[in-house]
Specification:
heterotrimer; A alpha/beta (about 260); B mainly alpha (about 325); C mainly alpha (about 290); A: about 260 residues; alpha/beta; Rossmann fold; 6-stranded mixed β-sheet; 10 helices; about 25% strand; B: about 325 residues; mainly alpha; ABC transporter involved in vitamin B12 uptake, BtuC; two-stranded antiparallel sheet; two-stranded antiparallel ribbon; about 75% helix; globular; disordered N terminus
Chain lengths: ~260, ~325, ~290
């Protein structure tokens, strides 16, 4: 069964004035699979996400999404093409309600500019209702519909993580990148998260996952890429990677 | 225990407010209050725009007096020097200020925090210096005289009462527009930008376009207020449009309550009428103003409206908590 | 005067004024480095330095050097008072709140000053007389030399303090890593307090040393503070030598612009330079770009 490549990087590099966070990284993500990127601390995983999503510019190399180059595109344009992400250190809109957070997720899948909103054109009113209804659907998908009116900043941490995920889903991405979604979650919450990620894949969304939690990675991933010091050192199915010599050396250090 | 929040339709508040404004004049005991209300209305228009920028989108501007002054001077100069009718002056003022705000906004809104504050502050000071120095046009430091009274398509606003209603209509229009914008997709995008610029952009929000856009809008509001001011006073001078007035505008919004349009109006009313109360203190006016500013910001940083709201909620909470403990 | 002599004169004025801007900017940097706050009341320290010196001389009948010392210590104390009364009690220190608080404090201080000293300007006698020194066709006021000399002493003193003493290094540590600093036993609140005191000290010194040349008055603080902040930003906010470079650059460009183009636009030139820096090189001449961590 061959899946087409939806995202790939070619020779991606990022220098932070002396620290080489990414070194000639070649990565391929195939559609409708769950793919994980793992590696020891400081391996460059979050930098990888930041470069792909357009938050920072690479110092070398290119990024292709659905066959088209996105390397120099501004972040919001990349989002318009169907790629979005969540954040390791949570970037919720803390003063807005849960529902409003998800509604912002639908921003580029909805219409309504300044003038039409100012005069409250009838189609804007209808569009608002559609956005509100669909956002509630997403909250139902992740099981948070009863919190819709809660202010996001007051949610317990686990729910905040789920909210950020729901918000990302609301933008109907083809590729959803999750940056350490299990960080700070307990075992039970991590298991729920795993189920949710599988359901996301089943709904047709490709998932690229950066994670430290090995159980989560092994249980949900179809494919694992291991990077260390900004460079790919192994990839393949979870089991084959787990036993790879280079991977063990990277995590445990040279003996 | 959850306190039920009565979420009224914002239009109920708007209609109530309109009615109050419409029927207020007969109750005023002194002509002077009409004059004060006119100024409150003019300041409130600026404050609403500034709140959209500062409270909702989280972008600070310490130079908004410049846009107010530009609106006033553009229509003033066209009226005094070229006898243009006020309505034409309005169009030029709104468009001109809008374009200028757009040009200056693009590089300025790339900045954040103190850098943004200083850039807007610097811009404001530069504009005021031009008001003083371009004296062949603006009349220089002693000001511009000869601005025509307000007439719109032949109708003369030749009494304070008529001007009051003109200001009310302008304020209510801006208020209505702003309420609609705030409760829309645009309003959500602005608040999202305030919450997290990076998260907004990965969700497809064109952050810089919205930031510049709301900056331009707030500048245009200020220009409208400047137009109203110019034809009311029929005289403008650079000293009204300096750094201290920019600070006063920000204070109105912050003390009123950031991110609350009603708060902006409340803050404008409070700060415009405060000098009248402080007149009692005469020379102490500045000192008291500074003291109030610091005290409110230290103890009620969310602003007076929100602070009062929080206090009322706390009172309700303690009352209802007491009810569950029955005393014999 | 020939053109080149005029330019030399403008340069001399520019370096003198620029040194003052650098000193004031240093006050901003000290507080910014310890707590990321921009103290908009910094300019009032400058004003108070001059006016307190005047009062010490007139009321306490102290000779100038002692009056200056009293003033400097007094302003340092006022700085700590500002920190304790207006900054420490703040529960949610977001930039907007702090900007408004320090602006409010500056308005308050200005108001009190106008009550104590009125709105008239006051002179302070030049430290060593007013006989101008001739220098290649231009003149240097002896006070200019005092300005530069005292500034040099202060700059070197701070270099020594922040670079070599334990307290100074502790202050830098508190700025970079407050949590780590607390863990090794540094009292970060006290460090912030000291930073306000030092900031008051250097602001007052600037005000005293320039007063003989430009009079002192209750409202000179506003522009002085703003220009000092410009100097800091132009050189690189928080950067030690940056503010020196920025201040002198600002002073010189402002002076040349005022002399060669127009004096009415003097401040517009200064802020125009600031805007250009902010638009094209916000990290300043000597600053380095900071990356945001997401």
């Amino acid at each position: 069964m061959s899946h087409t490549i939806v995202l790939n990087t070619v020779g991606l590099s990022k220098d932070f004035g002396g620290v080489k966070a990414l070194r000639e990284l070649d990565l391929e993500v195939r559609e409708r699979l769950i793919q994980a990127v793992i590696g020891p601390n400081g391996a460059g995983k979050t930098t990888l996400f930041n470069v792909i999503s357009g938050v920072i510019a690479p110092t070398g190399g290119t990024v292709f999404f659905k066959g088209e180059e996105i390397t120099d595109l501004p972040t919001h344009r990349i989002a318009h093409r169907g790629l979005t992400r969540t954040f390791q250190n949570l970037q919720l809109f803390a003063d807005m309600t849960v529902l409003e957070n998800v509604m912002v997720g639908m921003h580029h899948k909805s219409r309504g500019g300044f003038f039409a909103s100012a005069i409250k054109a009838p189609w804007v009113i209808a569009e608002e209702r559609r956005v509100r209804d669909e956002s509630m659907e997403w909250l139902r998908f992740v099981g948070m519909e009863e919190h819709s009116a809660t202010v996001a900043g007051s949610l317990p941490f686990g729910n905040q993580r789920i909210l950020e995920l729901a918000r990302g889903l609301a933008s109907r991405p083809e590729l959803l990148m999750l940056d350490e979604p299990a960080a700070g979650l307990n075992t039970r919450e991590t298991q729920d998260l795993a189920q949710l990620i599988i359901r996301i894949k089943e709904s047709g969304v490709t998932v690229l996952l950066v994670e430290h939690d090995m159980e989560l990675v092994m249980s949900v991933s179809d494919h694992v890429t291991v990077i260390d010091q900004g460079h790919k050192i192994a990839e393949g199915e979870p089991d084959s990677v787990r036993n790879d010599e280079n991977v063990l050396k990277a995590y445990l250090g040279e003996e | 225990m959850k306190i039920p929040r009565i979420v009224r339709s914002p239009y109920a508040g708007f209609l109530l407010f309109s009615a109050v404004l419409a029927f207020l004049p007969p109750f005023l005991t002194n002509e002077y209050y009409l004059n004060l209300l006119i100024f409150i209305g003019i300041h409130a228009i600026i404050a609403i725009g500034l709140d959209l920028l500062l409270g909702y989108t989280g972008q600070i501007s310490l130079g908004h007096a410049a846009f107010f002054g530009l609106g006033a001077y553009i229509t003033g100069v066209l009226s005094a020097k070229a006898s243009w009718p006020p309505i034409a002056g309005l169009v030029v003022a709104l468009v001109g200020v809008g374009i200028l705000a757009y040009i200056i906004g693009i590089p300025t809104l790339k900045l954040h925090g103190h850098y943004l504050a200083m850039a807007t502050l610097g811009f404001g000071i530069i504009v005021q210096i031009f008001f003083k120095e371009l004296d062949f046009l603006t009349g220089g430091p002693s000001g511009l005289v000869g601005i025509e009274d307000m007439t719109i398509f032949g109708y003369a606003f030749d009494s304070d009462l008529k001007y009051y209603y003109l200001v009310c209509v302008s304020l209510l229009l801006t208020l209505l527009l702003s309420i609609n914008v705030v409760r829309s997709r645009v309003g959500r995008a602005l608040r999202a930008i305030h919450g997290s610029e990076v998260a907004s952009s990965v969700l497809g929000v064109n952050v810089s376009r919205y930031k510049v856009g709301i900056f331009v809008l707030s500048a245009v509001y200020a220009a409208l207020a400047g137009w109203l001011y110019s034809h009311y006073m029929t005289f403008v001078s650079p000293s009204s449009f300096g750094f201290m007035f920019s600070i006063k505008l920000v204070t109105m919004v912050v003390i009123g309550s950031l991110g609350s349009i009603w708060g902006a109006i409340f803050g404008a009313a409070l700060l415009t009428s405060m000098p009248e109360f402080l007149h009692v203190f005469a020379n102490y006016e500045t000192t008291v103003f500074g003291f109030i500013l610091v005290t409110v910001m230290v103890f009620m940083p969310r602003g007076l409206l929100r602070g009062l709201e929080d206090m009322i909620i706390r009172v309700f909470k303690s009352l209802s908590d007491h009810e569950t403990v029955k005393e014999p | 005067m020939t053109l080149s002599q005029q330019i030399l004169q403008y340069l001399i004025t520019g370096v003198t004024v620029g040194t003052i801007y650098a000193l004031i900017g240093m006050g901003f940097n000290i507080i910014y480095n310890s707590t990321e706050i921009i103290n908009f009341a910094q300019g009032e320290f400058v004003m108070l330095g001059g006016l307190l010196t005047v009062s010490s001389m007139q009321v306490l009948h102290l000779p100038l050097p002692f009056a200056a010392l009293v003033a400097v210590i007094g302003v340092a104390l006022i700085g700590t008072l500002l920190n304790v009364a207006a900054i420490r009690p703040v529960k949610d220190p977001n930039p907007i709140t702090l900007i408004i608080i320090t602006i409010g404090a500056s308005i308050f201080i200005r108001g009190i000053s106008s009550l104590i000293w009125g709105k008239d300007p006051y002179p302070i006698p030049a430290f060593s007389g007013e006989d101008p020194i001739h220098f290649f066709g231009a003149v240097i006021q002896p006070q200019s030399l005092w300005v530069m000399g005292i500034a040099l002493v202060i700059v070197l003193g701070f270099r020594q303090f922040f670079g070599k003493t334990i307290t100074g290094k502790a202050m830098m540590a508190s700025a970079f890593q407050p949590r780590a600093a607390k863990l090794v036993g540094i009292d970060t609140r006290f460090m912030v307090l000291i930073s306000f005191a030092l900031s008051g000290l250097v602001g007052a010194a600037a005000g005293i040393v320039i007063a003989p040349m430009s009079m002192t008055q209750y409202d000179i603080g506003v522009m002085m503070g703003l220009k000092g902040f410009c100097a800091a930003i132009i050189g690189g906010l928080g950067h030690f030598w940056g503010v020196v470079v920025g201040g002198i650059a600002l002073g010189v460009l402002e002076s040349l612009g005022a002399g060669l183009i127009s004096s009415g636009y003097k401040d517009a030139i200064a802020f125009g330079i600031l805007l250009l820096m902010l638009f094209f090189r916000p990290q300043g001449i000597l600053g380095r770009t900071k990356g945001d961590r997401v």
